[in-house]
Design goal:
heterodimer; A: about 325 residues; alpha/beta; Rossmann fold; 8-stranded mixed sheet; 11 helices; B: about 325 residues; mainly alpha; MetI-like fold; about 80% helix
């Protein structure tokens, strides 16, 4: 029931999300957090999933590994395929092999994402031993190698430490090391730098780029920061109110965003060397997810909206040779 | 960890000292004249005065306290006049019976409370959750002495499954089955209230922990649901439950007074009830002191277990 055509050639896709719909039901109100999202990620490809808070980007990413707490969340439609296995319908056992094995996650806040009462080493080896036949010592040795690989000094000593004994950046490195433990084909990184200091953010991004070059894994990078996308991603998927509104190669989005929302988001990026200019903002708020209006959900805040934007359903359509846009006036400027 | 153990261990000293003071003051404050109680209502004032002098009851309270404390520290709890034997012998014997009862009740409390709490949290809003929540509430609301009487009526007199009263020592001549047979009803009656408290706390603590990011991380690792719940969620949730288990021990020891009385269990609770009636001051003081120190030590143990479970506490 998706109104979207597939973009990249599916046969080569590592992961193909089709028509994904995820609802949250709170006090009998249905909030459609993700509404018919299509998303493919090729082998070795780096995709940025961008949008404001509440746009559905995190819910989309968490739906892939079925990490949405149920209740209140529930995937109500669509499929998520990896090698012909539909993760939405896969039995728990199959899902477990994919989780942490073929697809691994790094989350937003490394302090709350690591178990406070378990040593770093135990948390790392647990990840390995869930997927590989390793004895305790081999797992321990591999854990030390992983900490070396993410540039944590004194790896041996760190293995016996607890998360609260590490700095924020160090904790996120541990999370990344853990995610890499089973050489995943896809790494899902959900705003992995948002909770960190600016200087540490840059270090973590460098690390992710380095690891990606070394391992060749695919990356789904969730962020609201276009600057990060420019540095790290090949392709951008922009979400608004639970729907994909634009999908394009990174350089095209910066040169000439097709959807007005994407254009405004790109404008919000502070530019180095532009002097003391007021930061751009997009006035207004996204619609409530239980009261999504007809037509384009962004129309209320759009600077080129017209009457036709507020009617019917607006489809995600091809734009140029390698882009998709959900807008009846793509590329319009005020 | 070592620093924490020392720091926490040292706190026991002033607390214990305070306990001895309270135990002593308590007996001074309750009405009734021990010498008169011993001699009966027909004793002459001269006889009463003589006995008071013999028992050192005519001295000022602080002198009495220091003398008593000095003796207690050296292991001399005095002699029970009503039983005509050393207080220490009597309270140790009675206390072993209470330990058997309260220890078994504690085991039931912990196993039942934790299990029910975990299941209720994992099955939140399902029938298991409702059943355990109602069960815990009922358990909490029923006084243990009343439950004890109902148990006797139903399971001992009605169904005849268990004896109505009495006890067999754990290491006595009767086999473990006979010991257990006598234990089931009083231990369960004693445990249910505490189990209700532990179950409710475990449930809420688990619900809190299950929402945490690290539980999502654990799930994303591809480990089994059981590992996620026990190794990641419960391991964190139990940190909050352990100190309350320590507090519940106090409740079990206190509740033992009623349950022992109802079941005719020869424990320290029933001994205290009798000793208070006969104004056997030294026996009461020795018994209460032993129970109180046990409580202090159990809570020390609970705090140390908690610190062992959560590295962040050791720092504090």
């Amino acid at each position: 029931m998706s109104d979207v055509r597939a973009d990249a050639p599916d046969t080569t896709a590592l992961l193909a999300v089709r028509g994904l719909r995820t609802d949250f039901v709170v006090e009998d109100e249905v909030y459609r957090a993700v509404d018919g999202v299509d998303l493919t990620i090729g082998p070795g490809e780096s995709v940025g999933l961008v949008g404001e808070s509440g746009s559905g980007k995190t819910v989309t990413a968490m739906s892939i590994l079925q990490l949405i707490p149920d209740p209140p969340g529930r995937i109500v439609g669509g499929s998520i395929e990896i090698d012909g296995i539909d993760l939405v319908r896969a039995p728990e056992r199959v899902l477990r092999q994919v989780r942490g094995g073929r697809i691994a996650c790094v989350f937003q806040d490394p302090l709350t994402s690591l178990n406070p009462v378990l040593q770093i080493g135990d948390q790392l080896t647990e990840m390995m031993r869930a997927h590989q036949d390793l004895d305790r010592r081999a797992a321990r040795r591999r854990a030390r190698e992983l900490l070396d690989a993410v540039h944590i000094p004194q790896a041996e000593r760190r293995l016996a430490e607890y998360p609260h004994e590490l700095s924020g950046g160090m904790r996120q490195r541990v999370m990344i090391a853990m995610a890499l433990a089973n050489d995943p084909e896809l790494l899902i990184a959900d705003e992995p730098t948002t909770a960190l200091d600016v200087t540490v953010q840059a270090e973590i991004l460098d690390l992710l780029r380095e690891l990606r070059e070394r391992t060749g894994m695919s990356l789904l990078f969730i962020t609201h920061d276009f600057g990060v996308v420019a540095e790290l991603c090949d392709r951008v998927v922009v979400m608004y109110a639970g729907k994909v509104v634009e999908q394009a190669p990174v350089e095209k989005v910066f040169a000439d965003a097709a959807h007005p929302y994407t254009r405004r988001l790109v404008d919000c990026m502070p530019q180095l060397g532009e002097g003391r200019k007021d930061l751009e903002v997009i006035p207004g708020l996204p619609p409530a997810l239980n009261r999504i209006p007809d037509g384009c959900a962004f129309a209320e805040r759009c600077d080129v909206a017209e009457e036709a934007c507020r009617r019917g359903t607006i489809a995600l359509e091809g734009y140029g040779e390698d882009r998709l846009v959900r807008c009846i006036k793509p590329g319009a400027r005020p | 960890m070592r620093a924490y153990v020392v720091r926490r261990g040292l706190q026991v000293i002033p607390v214990t000292f305070g306990v001895t003071l309270l135990v002593f003051a308590m007996m001074l404050l309750i009405p009734g004249d021990p010498a008169r109680a011993i001699l009966g209502s027909y004793a002459t004032p001269e006889n009463v005065a003589t006995l008071e002098r013999q028992l050192a009851l005519d001295r000022p309270p602080h002198i009495q306290y220091v003398t008593w404390l000095g003796n207690v520290v050296t292991g001399d709890f005095g002699r029970s006049y009503s039983l005509n034997r050393p207080v220490l012998d009597e309270i140790l014997e009675r206390f072993s019976a209470t330990l058997l009862l309260a220890g078994t009740a504690l085991l039931i409390t912990v196993v039942l409370g934790l299990t029910a709490g975990i299941i209720a949290a994992v099955k939140q809003h399902r029938w298991q959750d409702r059943a355990f929540t109602v069960g815990a509430l009922v358990g909490l609301s029923i006084p243990s002495f009343w439950l004890a009487m109902i148990f006797i009526v139903v399971f001992a007199l009605g169904l005849g499954w268990f004896p109505t009263s009495g006890m067999r020592p754990a290491f006595g001549p009767s086999g473990p089955l006979t010991v257990l047979h006598h234990l089931v009803l009083p231990a369960t009656a004693l445990a249910l209230v505490a189990a209700g408290v532990i179950a409710r706390l475990t449930r809420s603590s688990m619900l809190e922990v299950l929402r945490q990011d690290y539980v999502r991380t654990a799930t994303s690792k591809g480990i089994t649901r059981q590992s996620v719940i026990m190794r990641h969620a419960f391991r964190n949730a139990v940190v909050n439950v352990v100190p309350v288990i320590g507090v519940q021990v106090g409740f079990l020891l206190g509740g033992a007074v009623y349950v022992e009385t109802v079941f005719g269990w020869p424990g320290i609770g029933r001994m205290l009830v009798t000793a208070i009636g006969t104004r056997d001051i030294l026996l009461v003081q020795g018994g209460v002191l032993l129970v109180a120190i046990t409580y202090v030590l159990i809570n020390l143990a609970a705090d140390l277990v908690q610190a062992a479970l959560d590295p962040r506490i050791r720092l504090g």
